[in-house]
Write a structure and sequence with these properties.
This protein has 501 residues and is an alpha+beta fold. It is built from 17 helices and 11 strands. A 5-stranded mixed beta barrel has the order 4-5-9-7-6. Strands 1-2 form a two-stranded antiparallel sheet. Strands 10-11 form a two-stranded antiparallel sheet. Helix 6 packs antiparallel against helix 9 and helix 11 crosses helix 14. The radius of gyration is 23 Å and the shape is globular. The mean pLDDT is 95. The structure holds flavin-adenine dinucleotide (FAD). The site of flavin-adenine dinucleotide has 20 residues, from strand 3, strand 5, helix 12 and helix 13.
Amino acid sequence: MPFDHLLSPVRFLLDSCPAMSASTLRTLRMYEAWWEHEGQHISYAVDRAGTPHVRMFDRFGKRVDEILYITDYWRMLKEGYKAGIVWRVFEENSLLPFFLMDYVTCFYDIGVSCPYTVSISTAVPLDKYGDDEVCKRYLVPMLRRNDEVWQGATWMTEIRGGSDLGANVDTSAVQAADGHWFLTGDKYFCSNAGAEVAVVAARIDDKPGVRGLGLFLVPRVRENGELNFHLRRLKDKIATRSVPTGEIEMRNSEAYLLGAPEHGIYLILEVLNLSRVANAMGSIGLAQRAFSEALRFAQGRVAFGKPLIEQPLMRRQFEERHAEICRSFALAWEAAITLNSVHRETPPYSNRFHMTRLLIHLAKYWTAEVCVQTAKWAMEVNGGIGTLAEYPVERWLREAMIADIWEGPPHRQILDGLEVMERKSAHLMLFEHLMPFVEPEQMQEVTARMERWLLMPQDEKEANAQTEFNILAQFTADALLGRMRAEVQEQGLVARRVTER
Ligand SMILES: Cc1cc2nc3c(=O)[nH]c(=O)nc-3n(C[C@H](O)[C@H](O)[C@H](O)COP(=O)(O)OP(=O)(O)OC[C@H]3O[C@@H](n4cnc5c(N)ncnc54)[C@H](O)[C@@H]3O)c2cc1C
């Protein structure tokens, strides 16, 4: 069956990512096996149990803000940490083990991938910008390989809106005479609300706009052992149920400034770069899952005398969807590889860093679109059964909708992508990067089209942005798929033969 490699996330990765090391492959196989045998059953139970709840006080009246899940939830969550979704990044000095494990996680449970993503998005800037003492206290526990591992979180969004952080972040950061920082303000969307540490955007010295923002590390517990911030409530949401998203109140909360105050917005964008690539990889992991559920159903369900998969219209849809998943994966993976090559840079950044930003916007935007379309289509393939909560398909559509919104909805990706094209000519660097894999006439055509777009008056340019971004995303994904296929043939087969021997 040409589609069978989509039934297993590791098999798909093996076919798509050339030169995967033997140890990475071993880790991924063990991780997938755990999900197959145990994790997916826990995940199903957690999803059915719904949103977790909060115990605000202990029985003696002490504020504890404890998030309550079924016990197995913690086992499922800790499995990824123990398998190395965070610590391997530091041991191997590469983000790629995280992105690959994130892919496998999202095939089974994109909600659980959120704590992993926000943890890595805390640990990486902490390692890069935190001083030795702060790293010793807060990073070291995040790299534990046992149940005592600490988690991170990334809290930027406030009640008036997440897209325009420059206008809407009111949380203030005040520095005391002894140099310590304290934050006061409310964060409205806080995923992984029970994390031991969070990176938080706050306004320094009342400076307006994004230039006034700094990035701070905020621990859950103060120096004196009391809670450093309070959890006001958890959101009752559709979509992902295996990550608690809440509202956080900070009142003179102890905090540590990361990096230079004037670089705050760059650090916030670095955090978003990481989580957006994770989102892109995860979106295709989830799309693959929805595809595989559709395939199993189409192979078993008979209508008009033969299985659905043998009906010409259905067959064509499977072929097209399969091709879309493969090319979108190539786009997400390129974003992962290039981010891995530039993520240690600090401002001012190289041209390659700016090109990476464009790639990330394209990948986050396009993969989330593909994820939602694939989940919707998988529901259609499953017919009425697809809508029933007792089967897994409706869940993938609920969860796909969230991949589209968190880390910035489509408009944000498109308009920020446009900005990096206008300000840094990132598209020209991207075209140079893609040159070897594209026919010259095709390259000229797309280059001319993008230049025409960029010369439009501002309002017209923004109004046309989605059409042009779609074209750019598909062009880039096609080029990268071509390269990926050539590389898989050259290197991947050799690597696989070596590992399987
Ligand atoms: C389940 C969940 C978990 C989340 N977890 C976190 C978290 O842990 N940390 C965190 O910081 N945030 C988190 N978020 C918030 C998320 O990042 C925001 O929802 C998102 O960034 C959009 O912000 P907003 O919802 O305030 O929409 P708004 O910023 O109010 O925007 C509303 C709509 O307008 C669009 N829009 C905005 N500007 C323009 C423009 N110029 N042109 C065209 N359209 C525009 C937006 O794309 C969006 O579609 C979470 C959200 C959800 C749903």
